[in-house]
Amino acid sequence: MKENSDMENSLLCHDRVVSLSRCADKNDADLLPNTGYRKESSEAACLNMMRCLSTTLSPESVLVQFELEMKRHFPICNVSFRNSKHILTNQRGVPGIFSMEIELIDDEHIYGCLMLEFEWVLSPVKKRLVNQLTQMLTFPLKNAVAFQEMKQLALTDSLTGLPNRNSFENAFQQLMARYQSKGIGKRFSLLILDLDDFKRINDKHGHQTGDLVLSCFADVLRSCCNKTAEAFRFGGDEFTVLVHAEGEDLPHLLSSRIRLAVANNSSLVQYGINCSIGYSSYQPGDSLYSLFERADNALLQIREGR
User: Any idea where the GGDEF domain is (predicted)?
Assistant: First the structure.
């Protein structure tokens, strides 16, 4: 036992990371898997951790990389992170028998809390080493979260919260690639929606009321779109919906559902809001321009027919 105690003191004095070593200390050796592990200095472990965590700007991937790197040293099984804005989990569903909750410190402030679950109990030495390595997660995770937030802002309409035109164009390209790869029979549809005489709202009631009307209409679209349809604010009072499912009657059914929801929305009824909807289905050889043009022409025909 004296030999084990000397080993732990040596680890503390030289700031070493022990990778689940059978020869590190007898108490841990009894609790850890009967397989070979190696020793690694804490400096090298921290450098490896930083290198692995800097390879991605996805918060979820950062957490996965962190767990993979920690598994080189400790019997970790579940990891989760939370702060006032975000909750991230990377859990296998197998609960650990020992857990640690560690505060991630950023510039002397608490950025969030990391919950770690382990398959075996850790010694005090290894607890300290876990805490040391865990602090390497703070900056990469904070950086990845900030990047995703900025990316989300670039793809989201700030007024309505709907995906914006950039998101629409990206989604169209993804749908086109997906359905082209599945064969000619696979199609999707595009709806274009305009608020009728929207300029009257801005002129008569002001732009704040106009913004309220746009937000209410966006809420209507969200409530009408299910898992097979996604709504976008294209610009101004023009909105689009991509219906990524087959069925010639789906665009018509969705259009009817939207018109009914608009007619039943008290905020929109108050200002006499109606909408015109034109739609078209994807055909082999279509581009975004050609599909959009057909749907837009259908919209114009509906308006002219009123």
Answer: 186-306
Secondary structure letter of residue 178 according to DSSP: H
Range of the domain at 176: 155-304
The CATH number for 171's domain is: 3.30.70.270
Residue with tokens 């801005």, as numbered in its chain: 202
CA dist 58 and 108 (Å) reads 24
Task: Give alpha helix (H) positions in the chain.
Answer: 2-13, 26-31, 42-53, 59-70, 124-134, 138-154, 165-181, 198-205, 207-224, 250-263, 266-270, 288-304
pLDDT at 40: 58
Per-residue model confidence as pLDDT tens digits over 263-293:
999 999 999 999 999 999 988 888 899 999 9
Shortest CA distance to 298 belongs to which of 283, 280, 282, 274?
Answer: 280
Question: Edge to edge, what strands does the sheet with 229-235 contain?
Answer: 229-235, 238-243, 189-195, 275-281
Report helix, strand or coil for 72. Answer: coil
Residues 126 and 199 in one domain: no
pLDDT at 187: 74
Contacts of 171 (CB under 8 A, 6+ apart): 163, 230, 232, 242
**Axis crossing angle, helix 165-181 with helix 288-304, rounded to the nearest 10:** 110
Following CA atoms 295, 298, 304, 306 in sequence, which dihedral angle do they give, to the nearest 10 degrees?
Answer: -110
pLDDT tens, residue by residue, 177-229: 877 776 544 678 999 999 998 999 999 999 999 999 999 999 999 999 988 89
Are both 109 and 184 inside the same structural domain? no
Tell me the pLDDT tens digit for each residue of 77-103: 899 999 888 888 877 667 888 999 999
- Could you tell me the pTM of the whole model? 0.63
Overall number of domains in the chain: 2
